[in-house]
Amino acid sequence: MTHAASARHVFGVGIAAIGMVSLCLGFGSAHGQPSDRGEADRKPISQPRSSSDLSADQALQGMLELIRSSRSIADVTPASMQRAFGVQVKKVDSQQFGYGQHLPGNWAFGIMRQDVSGAGRVDLTFSPLPGMQPVPWSRCEPDFARFTARLQSMGFARHSSYGEHGRWLYDVFERPGMRVEVYPLTVEPRNDGAPAPACVQMVLMQ
Questions:
Q1: How many CB atoms neighbour CB 127 within 10 A?
Q2: What pLDDT, in 10s, does the model give residues 138-147?
Q3: CA torsion sign, 18 to 20 to 26 to 29?
């Protein structure tokens, strides 16, 4: 995939995520900056909770739980997604369902199961709100390195995908029955000028 094609792909999935946000606004919006929650709060719970309790970090933890508890995309149902994320899932039909909400700093995220080219796929995407200036992320937990390390600990084989001029685009994780793509999001440099760890912008599970 070329860099231009990858950019269009990320943009298209981001628009779909914003659409899921609009669909699910009836469930509320989040409050509190990323990484505000403790480890206990990030654990998935079985009962739906208020969306005001869901942070970006908890969304990532929910995605890890959904991947961990699924042998293939066929195992992803509204009930299993609800268990992993602990929020009320909005169902469009049997093949399209998910959840979305606003985040602080003019961001939003969406988790959506849909059919793409005749095959099922689950997308978790963090996107700026349309027409708004997003506040740059300064930190994230888990960051890209920790999130991908968790995938490897689940038995996924890992390799990177590159575009034109050797530009790194995303990392691919594969095991029998499942493929996961994880796309990075660069965050603001630290106060000492050192580069900050990349965050996760998008996770595709198929």
A1: 23
A2: 778 789 999 9
A3: negative
Total domain count for the chain? 1
CA 156 to chain centre: 18
Give the SS3 label for residue 83.
helix
The residue assigned the tokens 């943009």 is: 11
Whether the CB-CB separation of 99 and 17 falls below 8 Å is answered with no
Dihedrals phi, psi of 100, to nearest 5 degrees: -150, 155
Please list the residues that pair with 179 across neighbouring strands. Answer: 174
Taking only the tens place, the pLDDT of each residue in 56-95 is 999 999 999 999 999 999 999 999 999 999 999 999 998 9
Task: Give CA–CA dist 31/203, Å, rounded.
Answer: 22
Residue 96 structural domain: 3-205
Contact in structure between 30 and 103 (CB atoms under 8 Å): yes
Rounded Cα gap, residues 146 and 144, in angstroms: 6
Sheet holding 168-175, edge to edge: 90-93, 96-103, 107-116, 119-128, 199-205, 178-185, 168-175, 157-162
Which residue, among 118, 117, 121, has the nearest Cα to 178 in the 3D structure? 121
Query: Is residue 47 pLDDT above 70, yes or no?
Result: no
What phi and psi values does residue 180 have, to the nearest 5 degrees? -125, 130
Sign of CA dihedral 118, 66, 86, 186: negative
How would you label 2-31 residue by residue, b for 16+ Cβ within 10 Å and e otherwise? eeeebeebbeebbebbbebbebbeebbbbe
